[in-house]
Structures are given as C-alpha cells and as structure tokens.
C-alpha cells in the first residue's frame, strides 16, 4: 500500500492501533513510489535543421531548463513542416510523452503533432499520431497520453506551416518490447 500524505499515514496508524491494541507506535511512510525511467535519455535525437546552438540532443539532455539563451533547448531554422525525431533504438510501448516548452515564443508549438511508429518514411512524420499540441504555456510541461502506442521513433512535427520548432525537453515513458 502506498501512503501519499502525512494525514493518510496518521489515519492508517489509528486504524492499525484499533485493530492491534495500544502501545508505542510511530507512523512511517512506506516509500513505495515508483518512478519509471525516462526512455528518451537512452535514445538518439535528430531534427530537420539546426539554428545556432539549438541541437537536437538538447531535448534529451535531462535538463528541463526552458530558457533558450541557456543552451538547453532545440531550435530548427524556420522552414515548412519542421520536425524533431527521437530514436529509442528498439521498439517500445509508449504510454506518455512529456514536453517542456520554451519560455519565449510558446505559441510556436501550437498545432504540432506527436507521432510514434516504426517507419522512417517522410522522416518518420507519417507514423501514427499520438497527440496534437494545442498549446503549452511558456516554460511549462505538458503530458500527452499515448496509450501504449508501439514504436521505435517519436516525432514532433509542425505540419504544413512555415515555422521554427523548439523543444526544451522531451521525456518518454513506456516499456520495451522484446
């Protein structure tokens, strides 16, 4: 059983004492929190182009800093349908993707799509769509559920728009298929 708050610990202790008698008891959290690994940290990233120091790797460096000037975000050149791709190196079931948006120009990600699959056709941008990003506030994190979509490649693409693409961190959670 996982305990989430001090109040829950004390409530459970009172119930336990009621079942097991009085005495000297101390409430201790059970510590059963499970943090799944971020699969992106083991992958390889690429993107359609690079503007300045906005390399693709910056989105999987484990740093959620959202300030472009601190060199932790990707940035493509302004182009039609810019994309960023993560190669997980093996096929996984992807349950969720978390994205940290740049603090300045957050509207650039509006309408971007998250695509997951096995194909590199059209640079991976034809793979099944997991989600459409309708808006992420500047510097904020948004989580997108992908319901176990299977794939090796995670693409983020802004379709049919002449735009810059910037991502400050992309985290992928799921399980490997053997």
From TrEMBL:
The keyword rRNA-binding does not apply. Signal peptide: none annotated. GO terms for biological process: regulation of cellular defense response; regulation of complement activation, lectin pathway. InterPro entries: BG_Antigen-Binding_Lectin (IPR051941), FTP1 (IPR006585), Galactose-bd-like_sf (IPR008979). It comes from Neolamprologus brichardi. Pfam families: F5_F8_type_C_2. This is Si:ch211-215k15.4. One of its GO terms (cellular component) is extracellular region. GO terms for molecular function: fucose binding; metal ion binding. Belongs to the fucolectin family. Keywords: Calcium, Disulfide bond, Lectin, Metal-binding, Secreted. PANTHER family: FTP DOMAIN-CONTAINING PROTEIN, SI:CH211-215K15.4. It comes from the Eukaryota. Acts as a defensive agent. Recognizes blood group fucosylated oligosaccharides including A, B, H and Lewis B-type antigens. Does not recognize Lewis A antigen and has low affinity for monovalent haptens. Homotrimer. It is found in: Secreted. Its main location: secreted. Residues 36-178 form the Fucolectin tachylectin-4 pentraxin-1 domain.
